[in-house]
Write a structure and sequence with these properties.
By secondary structure, the chain is α/β, with parallel strands linked by helices. The chain folds into 2 domains: about 20-255, P-loop containing nucleotide triphosphate hydrolases (Rossmann fold); about 265-320, no CATH class. About 40% of the residues lie in helices and about 15% in strands. It is built from 11 helices and 9 strands. Helix 4 packs across helix 5 (about 125-140), helix 4 packs across helix 6 (about 165-175) and helix 5 (about 125-140) packs parallel to helix 6 (about 165-175).
Length: about 325
């Protein structure tokens, strides 16, 4: 893609189906959260708690620590195309449990017993928050359908929300296209469990939501198929009502992608621009730009691949200096 240009903006598009979307499903126990999530298309299950104990035939990775999750997440991110041949849906079960794993990981990382004991008593809250955010952001950035499962709990006023530490919940909930609240329907006359119902809009009693204006906000019977169909129908209704044309997930991904950056190419571009500025007698201004972004006495040639974003901004500023 070309560089960012506010006078040539992209136009947002909507993708059909559930591919690439993020969904949080929550409710009390035994409502079908794990079972229906495991029935999504080509699932890989990441059980932070024992949600698969009564479900057979599901591909899963044993997750017994935050380190296990990081290793799996790294493999998914490094081998996206290969992983997508086998998996479409990544199921994280469940949010409160992975927050506890992340807490333990950060405590061990800084050799303290509790998060609040780190940083000389000021706590490791920001480190913990960043650790969770980084891993969730990595997971949802690769185009998989990601299902977060959570338990439910009531606040002081009795309203029901997903259960968990807010620092861990926020990146999951905020990035969810749909937050589904499941409600029990009890048992039938023969004492068989009736499938739970699903809500996708907030009420006075519980939190739920959807980014799709035309979605059915209530599913009498919650199943993987019914959820997927609800999303498809929501997009079709929007097409009809607003005259838009929905696209594939890959097309949406292309629209939303930023300019790709290669370390070596970026470094060479900065060097070439630097030579031109030097020839124009603007070496002092060049140094001012570098110092502004990297610090006093720092050089661009000392940058690492982790600093691609900073290097890109430096190049942009240096190009502004050219006649």
């Amino acid at each position: 893609m070309s560089g960012l240009d506010i006078f040539k903006p992209e136009v947002s598009v909507i993708a059909k189906g559930i591919e690439g979307k993020v969904v949080t499903i929550y409710g009390s126990n035994n409502l079908g959260k794990s079972k229906q999530s495991s029935r999504m298309t080509k699932p890989l299950y990441l059980p932070f708690e024992k949600g698969l104990n009564a479900i057979a035939g599901v591909n899963f990775m044993p997750i017994n620590s935050w380190g296990d999750f990081k290793k799996v997440n790294k493999q998914l991110s490094k081998n996206v195309e290969k992983a997508k041949e086998k998996y479409q849906t990544i199921v994280v079960d469940e949010v409160d449990a992975f927050a506890k794993y992340a807490t333990k990981y950060v405590c061990n990382q800084y050799n303290v017993e509790r998060i609040k004991d780190g940083n000389d008593g000021f706590g490791l809250w920001k480190e913990y928050e960043n650790e969770v955010w980084d891993e969730i952001n990595k997971l949802i950035s690769n185009g998989f359908t990601v299902i977060f499962i959570a338990h439910a709990e009531a606040d002081k006023k009795g309203k029901i929300y997903p259960k968990g530490d807010k620092r861990a919940l926020a990146p999951a909930i905020d990035n969810s296209d749909i937050v589904v609240y499941l409600e029990s329907n009890g048992v039938d006359e023969e004492k068989n469990v009736i499938k739970s119902s699903a809500w996708m809009a907030e009420t006075d009693d519980f939190f739920a939501r959807s980014r799709f204006d035309y979605i059915d906000t209530y599913l009498e019977e919650f199943t993987a198929e019914n959820l997927n169909q609800a999303i498809i129908e929501a997009v079709e209704r929007q097409e009809a009502a607003e005259g838009i044309t929905a696209v594939t997930y890959e097309q949406q991904k292309e629209v939303n992608s930023s300019e790709s950056q290669d370390f070596d190419s970026l470094m060479n571009s900065i060097k070439e621009t630097g030579k031109k500025l030097n020839a124009e007698g603007k070496l002092e201004k060049l140094n001012e730009v570098v110092e502004k972004h990297l610090g006093k006495d720092k050089k661009v040639t000392e940058c690492t691949p982790k600093q691609l974003d900073v290097m890109s901004v430096i190049l942009d500023d240096l190009n502004d200096l050219l006649d």
